[in-house]
Design goal:
It is a single chain. This protein has a domain of 68 residues: Dna Ligase, domain 1 (2-Layer Sandwich). The protein has a five-stranded mixed beta sheet. Strands 13-12-11-14-15 form a five-stranded mixed beta sheet, sandwiched between helices. The protein is α/β, with parallel strands linked by helices and 363 residues long.
């Protein structure tokens, strides 16, 4: 899949609190984990999705490449997300992908709230009424067939900024992905593709949560919401009169003497309730455009490291909820990796692992 003699790509996931790097090797039977590592970022490196300290990210990537002995792998895949990214499913007349590629800029202008010259546009055909015509072919005359297309646009400025960071780290930015699609690829390693269900993949970061609703195996609706794991930290901080760092420690179960666990749980539920409310709002928006209903939620990201969060969100939403472990779908050399450690940090690895599955010629 990586091509004859082509080295696999490094998946570089730049989060608000850490940078993760994943490397996979493709075999006939699937993928093997070749490397995974992560390093924390200084506070306020990324604030509300905006990169404030690019030099810190460059240094973190360099440290990862050095510590994981990845210097011979130069090609990197990274992902973008946030308000500068638009993903929309549109319906267009049935045509060849070549014809669509020529007309997609014009189509995109109808749906994108940015100047078309400020964005990079791509697409993926996800469904069609009949066979998609080949290059040079036209649909049969008189037939008005249609196809569903996933339209993606990202501001050139956003892509350029992260490309510079990757380049200054000594790597070559080779493929640009979206967080929600990397999330989908990482989840598929664990669960495969279920074409009979509608599932919400939820990546809970510190301040932003990425949501990708998969309907019959295909992305149907995506949304980024401005709430994340820090909502839990802030709820503890405000209600228990502790500093932010102490609240983070309490959130992870490290209680100082005299602190009541029952009170902590109550405040954790308050923060998790804010995340669940945004998820429910997103599902309600999706349900207005689809006959399908979200039946299952799968969590990832640093926010999913909170003990019991799958149970709490499942209860709030009245849905089955579990946590994604992308390593379950990989061959793991237990002489090289500590399986217990991988299982512990698995939710934080989903996007990086998903990025590492990418190749130069896939979509």
């Amino acid at each position: 899949m990586f091509g004859l003699g082509q080295k696999p790509f490094l998946g570089i996931d730049i989060g608000s609190t850490s940078v993760k790097a994943a490397l996979l090797k493709k075999h006939k039977s699937g993928y093997e984990l070749a490397s995974f590592g992560m390093v924390p970022l200084p506070p306020d490196t990324i604030v509300d999705g905006e990169i404030e300290n690019p030099e810190a990210i460059v240094e973190a990537i360099k440290n990862l490449v050095k510590s994981e002995k990845l210097s011979s792998y130069k090609h990197a895949v990274f992902a973008v997300a946030g308000q500068s990214v638009i993903i929309k499913k549109i319906t267009v007349p049935l045509m060849s992908e070549d014809d669509l590629a020529e007309s997609i800029q014009q189509e995109a202008e109808q749906y994108i709230p940015f100047d078309i010259d400020e964005v990079n546009v791509d697409f993926q055909v996800v469904a069609s009424e009949g066979e998609i015509p080949k290059k040079g072919q036209k649909p049969p005359a008189g037939e008005e067939r249609q196809m569903d297309v996933l339209l993606v646009a990202a501001k050139k400025e956003l892509i350029a900024e992260q490309s510079r960071i990757i380049t200054e780290s000594g790597l070559k930015p080779t493929v640009v992905d979206l967080d929600v699609f990397a999330l989908e690829n990482g989840a598929e390693l664990t669960y495969g593709v279920d074409r009979g269900d509608t599932v919400a993949l939820v990546n809970i970061g510190a301040t932003v949560t990425n949501i990708n609703i998969i309907e019959r195996g295909v992305t149907a609706y995506t949304r980024d919401v401005s709430v994340g794991g820090s909502a839990v930290t802030i709820a503890i901080q405000k209600n228990m009169n502790v500093g932010f760092r102490d609240a983070e420690s309490v959130k992870l179960g490290r209680l100082p003497d005299g602190m009541n666990k029952a009170d902590v749980i109550r405040h954790i539920k308050t923060g998790v309730g804010q995340i669940a409310a945004e998820l429910q709002s997103t599902f309600d928006l999706f349900h207005k455009t689809s006959e399908s209903r979200v039946r299952r939620v799968r969590l990832s990201g640093g926010g999913a490291m909170l003990e019991g969060i799958d149970t709490l969100i499942g209860q709030e939403l009245g849905l089955d909820c579990d946590i994604i472990n992308p390593f379950k779908g990989l061959k793991i050399n237990t002489r090289q990796f500590d399986q217990q450690y991988l299982d512990t940090i698995a939710p934080m690895a989903v996007v990086a692992v998903g990025l590492a599955t990418r190749t130069l010629d896939d979509k």
